[in-house]
Amino acid sequence: MFDQPFVRDSFIRQIDPRMRVLLAVLLAVALALLRQVTACCLGLGLGCVLLGLARAPLRPLWRRLAAVNMFILFLWLVTPWTTPGTVVWQWHFIQVSREGLYLSLLVTLKSNAIACVFLSLVATLPAATLGHALERLGCPDKLVFLFLFTGRYIHLLAAEWEDLVTAARLRGFRPRTDLHTYRTVASLLGLLLVRSHERAQRTHEAMRLRGFSGRFHSLDSFYLRPVDICFALATASCLACILWTEAGGSILWADR
C-alpha cells in the first residue's frame, strides 16, 4: 500500500470519512479564492489547528511541506521582478515590485494552508477507506476502481523496478549521460510495462474466478454522528470568519 504515516489514532480519525473529504474540498476551494493576506494567515492557522487535531507526525509533515515549498521557492525567484507595479527595490535593471511580493506571499500562504488541510483531513484516511468514501459521495466507479488498485499494487511495481535495476547493475550497468544508458533505461521501462501488464492480467483473471463484478464492497458502514455534525459546524464557522475577514479586507483595500 501507499506509505501513510499520517494514519494514526486521533480526534480527526473519528470523523466520518465522507465529511472529511467534503470539508477538505470546500476548504481548499475557499482558501484558493482568498485575496487578502490576513485571511490567508487565518486559513493557515486553521490548517495548523486541524494538523494538531490529527496528531500529524512532524518528520513526514516537514518532508511534505518542504516538497510543496520547493515549487513555491521558484515562484519567489521569478514573480517579484517580473510582475509590473510599484518598485520597492532596484539593482541595475532588476526591479522588485510590491505587487510581485504580495502575490508570492499570497501563493505561499494559500498553498501551505491547503496542504495542511489535506494532510490533516485526507492523508489521515487509509487508502481503502478513502476509496469507499469517494464511492459513497458519487464518484465514478471506474475512478474509484483505479484508485484502489493503484494503492494496492503500486508498491509491487516499485519492487519490480528495483529488481530490474539491481539485475542491470549486477551485469555491469553504470548510468551515464550517453546513448547506451538511454537505451538501457528504455529497455528497463519496457520490461516494467510488460511485467505490469502480465500481473494485471493474472490479477484480473483471479478476481473474475472469485466472482468479482467490477465493484468493491466495503465492510465499513458510514453514518453521520453528532460529533461529525459538530465538527462540520465548527469548521464552517471558522471558514465563515475567514471569509468575513476577506470581505472586510477587500472593502478596506477598495477604499484606499
TrEMBL record:
<dbReference type="InterPro" id="IPR012809">
    <property type="entry name" value="ECF_CbiQ"/>
</dbReference>
<keyword id="KW-1133">Transmembrane helix</keyword>
<dbReference type="InterPro" id="IPR051611">
    <property type="entry name" value="ECF_transporter_component"/>
</dbReference>
<keyword id="KW-0472">Membrane</keyword>
<keyword id="KW-0812">Transmembrane</keyword>
<dbReference type="Pfam" id="PF02361">
    <property type="entry name" value="CbiQ"/>
</dbReference>
<feature type="transmembrane region" description="Helical">
    <location>
        <begin position="21"/>
        <end position="54"/>
    </location>
</feature>
<feature type="transmembrane region" description="Helical">
    <location>
        <begin position="101"/>
        <end position="123"/>
    </location>
</feature>
<protein>
    <submittedName>
        <fullName>Cobalt ECF transporter T component CbiQ</fullName>
    </submittedName>
</protein>
<dbReference type="GO" id="GO:0006824">
    <property type="term" value="P:cobalt ion transport"/>
</dbReference>
<dbReference type="GO" id="GO:0043190">
    <property type="term" value="C:ATP-binding cassette (ABC) transporter complex"/>
</dbReference>
<feature type="transmembrane region" description="Helical">
    <location>
        <begin position="222"/>
        <end position="245"/>
    </location>
</feature>
<feature type="transmembrane region" description="Helical">
    <location>
        <begin position="66"/>
        <end position="89"/>
    </location>
</feature>
<keyword id="KW-1003">Cell membrane</keyword>
<dbReference type="InterPro" id="IPR003339">
    <property type="entry name" value="ABC/ECF_trnsptr_transmembrane"/>
</dbReference>
